Backbone:
């Protein structure tokens, strides 16, 4: 559906995006992750034809975005970070304008009604856009992206600045839209990506850091099992005793949240069920285990780890999908070879 | 192109910009009509069209230039236009026609003065017609320059100031050219000649006198086409920067 090869954007001496290569298949929901200034919006602007890459190519449904921009753009709906709304128009006028601008061939009235129903803005159609709340403006922005019934939906930080209720509603909406479309969603809210996207592309300082399925990424990072434990035991004995349990890799003292108890974070080999050995050891000494909570690896941990690694040692080999699922070809050529 | 044109018209008429321009045009043109036609007891409108209205047109077109591309860029609505399956030429033409519609609406106010002359005297229909044609052709040139300046900046005030500065420079070209003519040696006399030909306001003289020459029409239309083309090229280039 989308093939990006060697995508590079330079602003003078500053390289905003450096040699990005990835493929997006039909029907995928992809999270585009990265800290501020990582090159997410620049990449999205290039994918939608708003700006041209310095080097590299973008194919949308087989059409080169540089050679046949009008044809390629027909397949894309784009919601930029700031929704491109005309405040002096009513929602209805605006959507009619976008309908004409995108040269839609559908029956106008029925199609606009349908789009308004999908994003739930039918009741505000005759209101001026400047009088709408931020959440509704975002919905109108989403409606304009959907007007041409695009096969690819590109959303740049669609929930930024919204209140928690609006965030949940927009996320549900994106999830629903993703059932029939390819969606690329950029965000630095990691829980959002984790809940919506099946695949994640992480960029940092313009480089591709990882391109993998969300669950594979979590699995690869979760090499060991971790538990947060609260034990009623003498504080000075806990660490040496627990560290001596076979299979225990790390015992980290977290302090004391209740009188007479100790909180520790333990990390053990994932092949060993450390809970049984822990219980036996504590029972033998007459210590009570009050709380034991498994601590999973969140996308946030993975993201921070990968971004830190890439910042220290860049450009590095990006983490990619497993064999047979490969969606990315890591950059092999040195940077100089990709110059214009 | 039609969608962009409609959007431009909604923008101009919804935001009171067009009404403000119509008010400015009405006030200044009426003032100049009183001062230079009525008080001189003349029915000849050539000077009124050919000199004093230039000032009003410069003000109107400079204000129009604020809305073309700089405001779109500033409000980030250009992202919608440039990511839609529409050609840059279509976008530029839509905006050009939008500007021309407002400009023409302003120009039509001058019909009132023609009626006034007709009521109290006799006006030269041929001269009036050629003046209207000339004003519209000059408007095409001015709007195309305004579009070009507007796509160079995202600050609407700079766009308006820049457009006005370009028009003032064009008005002064004639003066600079005569100065250069006296200074330049014989082999360099082509320079002031070309400079003088670039003065879009000077080409209006024929229309003011009631003559529509093919040369003037071709000049105005080609001047407009060149600036529209340059606008498309600048917008295209901006994507690559």
Residues:
């Amino acid at each position: 559906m989308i093939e990006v090869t060697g995508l590079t954007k330079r602003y003078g001496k500053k390289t905003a995006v450096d040699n990005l290569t990835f493929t997006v298949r039909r029907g995928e929901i992809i999270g585009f992750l990265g800290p501020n200034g990582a090159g997410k919006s620049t990449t999205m602007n290039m994918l939608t034809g708003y700006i041209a890459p310095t080097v590299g190519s973008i194919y949308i449904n087989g059409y080169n975005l540089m050679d046949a921009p009008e044809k390629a753009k027909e397949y894309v709906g784009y919601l930029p970070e700031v929704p491109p709304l005309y405040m002096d128009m009513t929602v209805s006028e605006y959507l009619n304008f976008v309908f004409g601008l995108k040269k839609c061939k559908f029956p106008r009235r029925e199609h606009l009604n349908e789009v308004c129903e999908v994003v739930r803005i039918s009741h505000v159609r005759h209101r001026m856009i400047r009088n709408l709340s931020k959440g509704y403006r975002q919905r109108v922005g989403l409606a304009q992206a959907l007007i041409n019934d695009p096969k690819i939906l590109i959303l740049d930080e669609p929930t930024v600045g919204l209140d928690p209720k609006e965030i949940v509603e927009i996320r549900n909406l994106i999830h629903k839209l993703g059932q029939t479309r390819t969606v690329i969603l950029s965000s630095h809210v990691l829980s959002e990506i984790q809940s919506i996207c099946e695949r994640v592309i992480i960029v940092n300082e313009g480089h591709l850091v990882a391109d993998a399925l969300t669950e594979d990424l979590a699995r690869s990072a979760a090499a060991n099992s971790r538990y947060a434990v609260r034990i009623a035991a003498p504080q000075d004995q806990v660490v040496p005793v627990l560290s001596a349990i076979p299979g225990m890799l790390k015992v980290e003292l977290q302090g004391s949240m209740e009188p007479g108890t100790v909180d520790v974070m333990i990390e053990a080999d994932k092949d060993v069920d450390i809970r049984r050995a822990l219980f036996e050891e504590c029972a033998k000494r007459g210590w009570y285990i009050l709380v034991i909570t498994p601590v999973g690896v969140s996308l946030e941990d993975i993201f921070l780890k990968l971004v830190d690694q890439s910042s220290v040692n860049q450009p590095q080999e990006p983490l990619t999908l497993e064999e047979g699922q490969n969606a990315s070809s890591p950059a092999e050529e040195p940077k100089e070879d990709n110059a214009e | 192109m039609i969608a962009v044109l409609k959007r431009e018209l909604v923008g101009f008429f919804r935001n009171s910009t067009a009404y403000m321009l119509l008010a400015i045009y009405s006030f200044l043109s009426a003032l100049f009509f009183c001062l230079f036609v009525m008080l001189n007891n003349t029915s000849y409108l050539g000077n009124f069209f050919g000199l004093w209205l230039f000032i009003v047109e410069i003000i109107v077109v400079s204000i129009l230039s604020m809305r073309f591309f700089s405001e779109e860029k500033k409000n980030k609505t250009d992202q919608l236009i440039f990511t839609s399956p529409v050609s840059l030429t279509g976008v530029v033409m839509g905006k050009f026609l939008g500007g021309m519609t407002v400009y023409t609406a302003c120009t039509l106010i001058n019909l009132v003065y023609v009626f006034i002359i007709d009521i109290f005297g006799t006006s030269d229909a041929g001269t009036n017609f050629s003046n209207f044609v000339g004003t519209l052709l000059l408007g095409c040139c001015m709007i195309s320059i305004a579009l070009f300046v507007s796509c160079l900046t995202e600050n609407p005030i700079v766009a308006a100031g820049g457009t006005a500065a370009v028009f003032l420079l064009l008005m002064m070209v004639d003066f600079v050219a005569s100065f250069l003519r006296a200074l330049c040696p014989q082999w360099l006399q082509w320079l002031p000649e070309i400079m003088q030909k670039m003065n879009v306001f000077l080409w209006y003289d024929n229309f003011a006198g009631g003559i529509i020459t093919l040369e003037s029409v071709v000049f105005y239309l080609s001047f407009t086409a060149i600036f529209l083309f340059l606008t498309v090229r600048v917008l295209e280039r901006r994507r690559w920067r």
In short: The two ends of chain A are 26 Å apart (CA to CA). Chain A has two domains: 2-75+150-219+300-338, 223-294. Chain A has eleven helices and 14 strands.
